[in-house]
Design goal:
By secondary structure, the chain is mainly alpha-helical. It contains ten helices and no strands. 78% of the residues lie in helices and 0% in strands.
Length: 201
Amino acid sequence: MRKLLFVIMAVLALLIGAYPLIYAFVESKYTFLGSKTPELLHSLIWRMAFFGHIIFGGLALFIGWRQFGASFRNRYMRIHRSIGTLYVIAVMISSVSAVYMGFYANGGLVSAMGFICLGLLWFITTLGALIKIRKGNIIRHQQLMIYSYACTFAAVTLRLWFPLLKNMTGNPIDSYIAVAWLCWIPNVLIAYLINRKLAAV
């Protein structure tokens, strides 16, 4: 079961991690950008933040899952470190962009706060993990990276929760407001349980 869940996580991460590619092939009006006002779309800063967020967030999601698994880490430590460095850089760019974008989130203040909190937690846990590994605290580094990837994986859970709630309620706006919190809080709680279980071993 554990291996099956890992495979499912990896497949979803790869699929959603490649999601930004659609912006190279699909007209903007048929994507998320179609939900934004013309004024916002003409803002160079917002557009830079948006593409920085989806490109580097997609990259972090695409490569981050491979960091888990003791056998891979122990056998390919150099690759693990290289992926880790790229992951941290990608998250730093994407999380800062996400916090900025959060102020313009669809759904108003409640959804904005949800996405801003996610961006801040994503940044803090990833930076904390980097600091801990540089100090040689491997256990704490691993724990914080689990929290970090739980935040990264919000890109997947958002795309699972939103259509489910929208179909159940028939209200896309309220569904999106709920998903601004649902996409990451359960992930973080699962990360907490994983860390608690690992600490008990």
